[in-house]
Amino acid sequence: MNSPERQFNALTSDQDKSSNEIKKTTEAVDELRPIIETETSMSYLGVKLEKAEVRDSQFVPKTEQYEDFINDKEVALPLQRDIAVAFLNGEPLLIEGGTSLGKTTTVRKMAAELGYEVHYANLNGATDVEDLMGRYIPNPYKNKPEDPEYIFADGKVTSGLRQEEGKIKIIILDEFNSAAPNILIRLHEVLDALERGGDVILSEDASESISVNKEKTKIVALMNPVGKGYLGREPLDPAQLRRWVYKKMPPELPVSTFSYSTDSLFGTELESQYITPDMFLKSREDALTLEQLPEIPGMREVLEKYKEFHKAAKELVKSRKIAQDQSQPFTYDDRMEPRRVRDFVLRFYNGDINETFQQALRYYYANKLESDVDRKKLEELIRLVEYKPKVADSKRRGIEGEEKIAEGPIGQHIEVAIEKLGKENVFGPKEIEKVFGVKIKDVPDIPFSVEELERAKNLNQMLILRVDKTAEGKPMSIKAMSDMLDKKWKDEGKGRLLFSAECWRNLLYKDLLTQELPRTGWALVSKDILPDSLNKDYLKQTEVIIKTLKEEVFKDLDIPEEYAEAITEFENKKAKIAEFMDEDLTETAQELSELKITQLTRQTSAEAIYDLAVYYDINNKKLLADKLTWSVSLDPYRHLVYLGRFDSEGLSYDDWYPNGLSDDIGVCLSRRL
Amino acid sequence: MSKTNDKTSIEKFLSSLAGSKEVGLVIANNQIEYKKFAKILHDLGFHKSDNVTDILKVKKTYFTINQNTEKEVYDFVVQYPTGQIEIFDKKIMQSHIFSPNYKDSAVVLLVDQDSLNKLQAKGFNFLSASGPAYRS
What we know:
The complex is a heterodimer.
Chain A: H1 14-30, E1 35-37, E2 41-44, E3 47-50, H2 76-89, E4 93-96, H3 103-114, E5 117-122, H4 129-133, E6 135-138, E7 150-153, H5 156-161, E8 169-174, H6 181-196, E9 199-201, E10 209-211, E11 217-223, H7 238-241, E12 245-248, H8 255-266, H9 299-318, H10 336-348, H11 353-364, H12 372-382, H13 408-421, E13 426-427, H14 429-436, H15 450-458, E14 461-466, H16 478-492, H17 502-509, H18 512-515, E15 521-526, H19 538-553, H20 561-580, H21 585-594, H22 596-601, H23 605-619, E16 628-634, E17 640-647, E18 650-656, E19 665-666, E20 670-671
Chain B: H1 10-15, E1 24-28, H2 31-43, E2 47-49, E3 60-64, H3 71-79, E4 85-89, E5 94-98, E6 106-112, H4 113-121, H5 126-129, E7 133-135
Parallel strand pairs in B: 1-6, 1-7, 2-3, 3-6
Antiparallel strand pairs in B: 4-5
């Protein structure tokens, strides 16, 4: 997602900018292409690698071997991108993952495209360092008495290390965690030499040293997970891992990748893979210099937050709050990770320090984690590594006796939101406490950028923090809200929350009132019905939502992946839903309710009530006084619930089939991440 | 990795291997079966290779393995699906590079159960590294 720091182009010349504009059309098309080949380069999700000048070698794999290689978006493409980053930065890469992921094949396929030599060594069962580093053998070329009896012959690794004009070589160390300890020690000496850019002393030769260069030799180690059916693998010492950029992959293909790959193999019609812009990294044509780093706006602030992040991430690993189930222990190294992050920023800074830094942290920190749950935990920390440009000094700030909005960075973020949306449209922990008496200990960060908040203002939206528990820790159900606020409002003469006529009984009897809860987190919610959504059936309303997202909310911004996927899902299913809508109304209602786009952009009935109640309680004004919003909720009869007409009698509810339409039923856009 | 373990005949199994991008594995329960399978392989036109570097010289080939089999056979099996095979000859310290031509080719490993167990225990996971497998 674009963030406001895009405006800082201190390191982009005017000439570059105009050149960028000229290229805009081509780039727009290229953005859809995950792999781009030119005569001299290959680009893997935006990471550009130069091809070798000399490609004519038996060690270079043949491209025709990979004609049926499947570039799926979950495994193969991100893997190629990450390998490309390691190659570009000259970092040794250690990939752990199951055999079915095609790790070796992927490296060889890239080598074929790039014209790089592959020098392969499988370390399983290998005990002899000399096989890798070289040894003296009887001279096969001896035909004169003066010829030496023995000559030194390179091993597999040595041949990969030797520099040859125009050639680039990859050393693959397969089944790395099956290697004998003496081999690991020797290989780590090689890695240290590569990192230093020095020489590898061939102790096996006792005389020669090989000058090594990480620009010319790339090292990729591959290993299967310890345990999980892989015999003979021992976890590596975490101290040894520090030399590697360690990438943890799943033990087997994710279900969706398996399905996509299988469909590809059988040539059946494929659902389009939506390659989202956030999958791309754009490498710079020229890396920044160290002197340019301090010139990046926000660098100092981001750096301070990065230090906190590193410490927190280390603690999470140490306390086994993440990576608990991973058999290969690791740590985040105090010296290596910051250096790698710095080199990444030098190579990939794109004018947005937040985006670049966060991508680096995903690459060097999150990539070491296997489970999505762990990655999400770390992602929460990554998002905090952020520079926020100073907004105009708040009038509220610094006033004596003023209550603090919240502790720490989140307090600052809320202040920025208030600056952008106005105090009357931001309902954070302080307001929620006032309305429901709930004290929120861990306030989640606001997942929206300053730019999005600015747009929200134009879209007449409010920002609200939803919680799913009452002050007593009970579920924040519709009934709980109603009981709580009816009592409170009675004292204040503000009326009731729910219209207590027949219409609510249906819900009450069917338990929806007591079971449906708001989904926790921040949401941007329209304070009124989207104007074009009135007098439209549920399907057409969804089209209005998507139009609003594309043309207003995300205009000229990268659409977040979950939204992009949700839109694609809707586009794929829309025609079929329309066709069968009249045939089976309840089935269609259920299908519409379960659509990702519905879940992301419509309120549940509990959320609509929560949002309207909070706004009214704080501002003493009622929203949706004469309109109704169609929610995501289904009642027990699988009818879609709509609610509103929040007048002096309270909120009304009813339900309908999805093909219904009325001039007072529309939809409020409610956006979560 | 798909494993075939039904009661189809070995002949059917072997005929299904043509064009496979993985090495097939035929597991004999005992030495009698081992010899029987070797004969069937021979009768069906599979050429027995004694050296890893010979495996790709003919379209249909098989290689027998036992607990003393050289590591290079394992290296071959692991690399076969990757589009390129590098076999390193330790005696002359030279690499031999092969590009498998999968079309109509079939490579089979023949092993008895006891040897397979011992190889697996040594860390050479042929069951995982190979593709389709047959056992009577």
